[in-house]
Amino acid sequence: MSPEPWLLETLAHDLAPSGLILRGGFRPDASHGAPPGTGTLLLIGNAGAALWRAFAASPPNGSDPLDRWIERAVLPIAARLGARALFPFDGPPYWPFQRWALAAEPVRVSPLGLLIHPRYGLWHAYRAALAFAATDLALPPRGEAPDLCGACTAKPCLAACPVGAFGREGYDVPGCLGHLRSPAGDGCLASGCQARQACPIGQDHAYDPAQARFHMSAFERSRP
User: Fold this and answer.
1) Is 165 exposed, middle or buried (0-12, 13-18, 19+ CB in 10 A)?
2) Is residue 216 part of a domain?
3) Digits of tens for pLDDT over the chain (224 positions)?
């Protein structure tokens, strides 16, 4: 008999007011780097602008407001469900959320280093995980991960960056930051990463301009 889906239904219901969604799950082994004793790991995240609209309606004061807001939304849910809440901003050391996402969802690593989703494209993120001791909880269906970037011959994402920060050698973080901190970078700060915007997948989930500005500014401030 398959596990009852009550947990997934309850979690989806409880997350909805915050614009968060269940992003998949899996049963980790030693290679996944989950907390010892974790039998089931469920990922929580967002896609599109729903989370931003909920956050913008009641942002907390102080530093790292989105992180604090995510904690405020997720911690009570974890407590009710008997799970341990994990966050990508916990650390160092940091939890390997990208590794978990590859195990939980049909995503692949894009040429930009971001994970690309067949429905959401690059317009999604992982915000938390719930670690359960039980090994018999229902899991969301995963599906196969199509090689969207391999099938894309034009690769407009690699040509869109005004300073060529993405290439065969990976992401040139210093080059990107230098551009953002110069007068020429005002457009990227104001409207978001042009390389990300150039990807044709999932454009109907693209972030609102204010959301893109928030994330670009947060990225710039977080780096020395």
Assistant:
1) buried
2) yes
3) 345 578 999 999 999 999 999 999 999 999 999 999 999 999 999 999 999 999 999 999 888 999 999 999 999 999 999 999 999 999 999 999 999 999 999 999 999 999 999 999 999 999 999 999 999 999 999 989 999 999 999 999 999 999 999 987 889 999 999 999 999 999 999 999 999 999 999 999 999 999 999 999 999 998 88
Residue 117 gets which letter from DSSP? B
Q: Is 138 part of any domain?
A: no
| Owning domain of residue 174 | 148-222
- Confirm whether 33 is domain-assigned: yes
> How many separate domains does the chain show?
2
Instruction: Confirm whether 103 is domain-assigned.
Output: yes
The helix-helix angle for 50-57 and 65-81 (nearest 10°) equals 100
Chain centre distance of CA 188: 20
Distances (CA, A) of 148 to 39, 57, 115, 121, 179: 31, 35, 11, 9, 29
Of the candidates 199, 110, 112, 203, which has an alpha carbon nearest to the alpha carbon of residue 156? 199
What residues have CB less than 8 Å from 10, skipping those under 6 apart? Answer: 81
Residues 120 and 46 in one domain: yes
Overall residue count recorded for the chain in this entry: 224
> Residue 75 and residue 87: Cα distance in Å, rounded?
10
